[in-house]
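ok so for the tutorial part 2 we go from a plain amino acid sequence to predicted structure tokens. step 1 is just haveing the sequence, like this:
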Amino acid sequence: MILVVGPSPAFQQRMIFDVIARDTVNRAREVETLPSGKPINCARALRRLGASARVVLFLGGATGEWIRRGLETEGIPFRGVACAAENRIACTLFESACGRTTELVENARAVGAAEAEAFLAAAREELGGASALLLSGSLPEGFPPSIYRELTAEGARRGLPVVVDAQGAALLAAVEARPTVVKPNRAELAAALGRPLASPLDREAAMGEILRRGAANVVVSDGAREVALLQESRSMIFHPPAIQANNAIGSGDVLAAAILQALAEGRTMEEGVRWGIACAAANAAGPGYARFDPTRARSLLRRVTAA
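step 2 — the prediction. this is what the tokens look like for a chain of 307 residues:
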């Protein structure tokens, strides 16, 4: 079982318009809702790929109850840790006339110290049955970044491959415990290190810093553009296949999940990154939020190039 740990799921709404006009009423012609956020997207991706996966997350309030029911309906195994705060809401506005997507995302609400401790205890308990660990997403206020470091260290002690897809202090804390893979996007890596990454050389220098701090592999994505891999012995640049994008939201989560699935199955890091890129491209070409077709991903895999 691959364990996904992420305290910040979301009640996701996607509204589709022909075009959005400013300073007036805009009525969506189509609306869909689903449980989402990075940890749920990762677990959904793993299930799509045929892996056994379970997600640990906070559930609170009316939105938390809706997320619970959505996960049960989808058949995604989960362990919900109760919190007093309502789970956050994310809303995607899509304009079909121009293909523009606008994301409105609420920050996760604060949790108490006792709730954070209960979350850590639940995650540790679930690690007992895990074959791999994925730490995914931002942390709510009141959630110590050190928890990601503690879980990374626990996974490493158990000999598990550990992938960290986090931001800011949580990412830097986890790196200290020597995860197998750290996978931020370029903006997240820049924010974590507090400096712009304006060029490929800037990006490689930042990746090198993360490597020196403890990560075995660093993978940095940049939307539909190239994906960079840095290891102690080499660096590689991967180019995704050209696709007609439909909804790219969740593609970074799919990339992280597919890399971990490949590593858990004994494939190499290069094979994992190639597979992750193909799955992420399939997600972007489909309805998004990790609802992709693995058959399409396999066909796209042949078109992932590297240098």
